[in-house]
Amino acid sequence: MGPSKRVCVYCGSSKGDNPAYAKQAKMLGQELASHNFGVVYGGGSVGLMNEIADGALSRGGEVQGVIPTLLDDKDHAHPLLTKRHITSTLHERKALMAELADAFITLPGGYGTLEELMEIITWAQHGLHDKPVILFNIDGYYNQLIEFIEQAMNEGFINANHEQSLRIADCIEDCFNFLPSNP
């Protein structure tokens, strides 16, 4: 029997310089699978994307990769995905990832990861979804972003009513505190 809930994980196609990022990504994948959550992610076989997939697969978890043609053509797709979705564009990729997911967790990453996070928060603000959006702040990676968001709230650019649009997690256990119940 497959998972009843799926978590979309946004993360880097690089591992970054801090070994904690890869370690925590793999552990998160393992824990999601152990708690019967499926993983939806960008489908890659490199960086933190590979770690989250390998972690979930190592515990028998379902892992769905959503990869646009421009990356699939370069053989970037993880070879052991439970299911691989191929989209025509990056926009279609993000829309399908959101559709397949019941929650979102963002790990360290670069421009693409930040863009995915900001878009899914914006969609929540506009009422396009009411799914949890979690920022997994491994080793303080996102401290400056969190400070910026607080400043934007203080300066009146982010409405205080949207403060709960983004949940901050400093450890895997915190991530699970914000995920929907999974029977």
UniProtKB/TrEMBL annotation:
<dbReference type="InterPro" id="IPR031100">
    <property type="entry name" value="LOG_fam"/>
</dbReference>
<protein>
    <recommendedName>
        <fullName>Cytokinin riboside 5'-monophosphate phosphoribohydrolase</fullName>
        <ecNumber>3.2.2.n1</ecNumber>
    </recommendedName>
</protein>
<dbReference type="Pfam" id="PF03641">
    <property type="entry name" value="Lysine_decarbox"/>
</dbReference>
<keyword id="KW-0378">Hydrolase</keyword>
<comment type="similarity">
    <text>Belongs to the LOG family.</text>
</comment>
<keyword id="KW-0203">Cytokinin biosynthesis</keyword>
<dbReference type="InterPro" id="IPR005269">
    <property type="entry name" value="LOG"/>
</dbReference>
